[in-house]
Amino acid sequence: MSEFEEVTTGLGEECGVFGAYDMDGGDVASTVYYGLFALQHRGQESCGIAVTDTYGKRKVLSKKGLGHVNDVFDRESLTELKGNLGVGHVRYSTAGATRVENAQPLVINYVKGTLAIAHNGNLTNAVELRKELEYTGAIFQTTIDSEVIAYHIARERLNTPTAEIAVRNAMKKIKGAYALVISSPRKMIGARDPWGFKPLCIGKRDNTYLLASESCAIAAVGAEFVRDVKPGEIVTITKNGISSDMSMAIPEEEQARCIFEYIYFARTDSTIDNVNVYHARITAGKALAESYPVEADLVVGVPDSGLVAAKGYSEASGIPYGMAFHKNSYVGRTFIKPTQSERESSVKIKLNVIEEVVKGKRIVMVDDSIVRGTTCANIIKMLKKAGATEVHVRISSPPFLYPCYFGTDVPSNEQLIAHSHTTEQIREMIGADSLGYMEIDKLKDMVGDLKYCDACFTGKYPIEVPNEDVSHAFD
């Protein structure tokens, strides 16, 4: 093993997409930058921005790289990205290895001009579509399924009068989860898969239209939230305004938003499909308190996504809420640990326990999920070392039992601790005094009437899935 090794904690994020179109012709690169900054929690491996000037030569300028948004871009590089139509992306790799070629947006030059495309999600039929394209002469530059989407849109555009019809025709072929932000020479197009797996919303600031994965990014650039893009909807923004195509929509009862947006992925200050993420997590915490009451002195949350659920648990149980952890905000989702002997303590690089808060106390610790169990076990060990007399773990999601094919990095069954162990066995393995998971039938209380996908807990997939995990099929 090498001297340095990367450590990944918890569950993989999604990706984040952002687009801006200034009708008055002003440069949008800095707006896209701040939008991506607000979506940084959705992906920390790579990022990129592509801009075009709808009034000038319509040449696409782009920059992308590995790392955080503020690592890849500086004032100088943003100044060079001149254009009033821009598309941006932050990436967490769900399909395709971590390398700069796989960073987005993808920019494709073809006979009708140039397309820039940013994609959040995962296709379930990407392997077949890619083979089909390869047999007709397509040469791929990346290992990501987003390139399959881009090719299909470009091919369809050769035989259709508009880019948005090309997007619609491509949507008839691609299956799975996707939120897309696309720039063609004079248009910005947003598209959401018919099931609504991935979020996408519309914002407006003066004469600038925006598309973003989450409403928090709309707010971050000082814009007004207009509405969510509906599942199956294609929105087209031109200098004449915004138009909508709902021809790919499916019946509402078949829709399937990713429930994990509300449990974990989305930022607390976002609202997705009229459901406030903060409210959803408070509701989850209250449900845990009802299902698994316990005698304790303090409720604490594991930063960041466990904090609000912990507040909900506290409110419902009457047990005081406290801050037991200091989180190092300067560490990404993946970091390098110095030596193998420090494997067990690697979580301390990200989190430290505040001893004064927990010493001599019975603690209820709320977190969003247990994937492999190692991180949770380390945190419990740290709490007990700091003097906590008991640690009762409450998890605001049901146990992970099945892989996700739609863009969430839920690992294979063998790596999921709940797949091969009972709750009692997991409790023992992580060293908790008690363990309670969110009950499946209480998930609906988080999102009201919204139709959602909970296949990673139930195995009931809303659409046909491949026989094998497609998320690394091209690596």
TrEMBL record:
<dbReference type="InterPro" id="IPR005854">
    <property type="entry name" value="PurF"/>
</dbReference>
<keyword id="KW-0411">Iron-sulfur</keyword>
<feature type="binding site">
    <location>
        <position position="258"/>
    </location>
    <ligand>
        <name>[4Fe-4S] cluster</name>
    </ligand>
</feature>
<keyword id="KW-0004">4Fe-4S</keyword>
<comment type="similarity">
    <text>In the C-terminal section; belongs to the purine/pyrimidine phosphoribosyltransferase family.</text>
</comment>
<dbReference type="Pfam" id="PF00156">
    <property type="entry name" value="Pribosyltran"/>
</dbReference>
<feature type="binding site">
    <location>
        <position position="456"/>
    </location>
    <ligand>
        <name>[4Fe-4S] cluster</name>
    </ligand>
</feature>
<comment type="function">
    <text>Catalyzes the formation of phosphoribosylamine from phosphoribosylpyrophosphate (PRPP) and glutamine.</text>
</comment>
<keyword id="KW-0808">Transferase</keyword>
<feature type="binding site">
    <location>
        <position position="453"/>
    </location>
    <ligand>
        <name>[4Fe-4S] cluster</name>
    </ligand>
</feature>
<feature type="binding site">
    <location>
        <position position="367"/>
    </location>
    <ligand>
        <name>Mg(2+)</name>
    </ligand>
</feature>
<keyword id="KW-0658">Purine biosynthesis</keyword>
<feature type="binding site">
    <location>
        <position position="404"/>
    </location>
    <ligand>
        <name>[4Fe-4S] cluster</name>
    </ligand>
</feature>
<dbReference type="Pfam" id="PF13537">
    <property type="entry name" value="GATase_7"/>
</dbReference>
<dbReference type="InterPro" id="IPR035584">
    <property type="entry name" value="PurF_N"/>
</dbReference>
<dbReference type="InterPro" id="IPR029055">
    <property type="entry name" value="Ntn_hydrolases_N"/>
</dbReference>
<feature type="domain" description="Glutamine amidotransferase type-2">
    <location>
        <begin position="15"/>
        <end position="240"/>
    </location>
</feature>
<keyword id="KW-0328">Glycosyltransferase</keyword>
<dbReference type="InterPro" id="IPR029057">
    <property type="entry name" value="PRTase-like"/>
</dbReference>
<feature type="binding site">
    <location>
        <position position="305"/>
    </location>
    <ligand>
        <name>Mg(2+)</name>
    </ligand>
</feature>
<feature type="binding site">
    <location>
        <position position="368"/>
    </location>
    <ligand>
        <name>Mg(2+)</name>
    </ligand>
</feature>
<feature type="active site" description="Nucleophile">
    <location>
        <position position="15"/>
    </location>
</feature>
<keyword id="KW-0479">Metal-binding</keyword>
<keyword id="KW-0408">Iron</keyword>
<dbReference type="InterPro" id="IPR000836">
    <property type="entry name" value="PRTase_dom"/>
</dbReference>
<dbReference type="GO" id="GO:0004044">
    <property type="term" value="F:amidophosphoribosyltransferase activity"/>
</dbReference>
<protein>
    <recommendedName>
        <fullName>Amidophosphoribosyltransferase</fullName>
        <ecNumber>2.4.2.14</ecNumber>
    </recommendedName>
</protein>
<dbReference type="InterPro" id="IPR017932">
    <property type="entry name" value="GATase_2_dom"/>
</dbReference>
<comment type="pathway">
    <text>Purine metabolism; IMP biosynthesis via de novo pathway; N(1)-(5-phospho-D-ribosyl)glycinamide from 5-phospho-alpha-D-ribose 1-diphosphate: step 1/2.</text>
</comment>
<keyword id="KW-0460">Magnesium</keyword>
<keyword id="KW-0315">Glutamine amidotransferase</keyword>
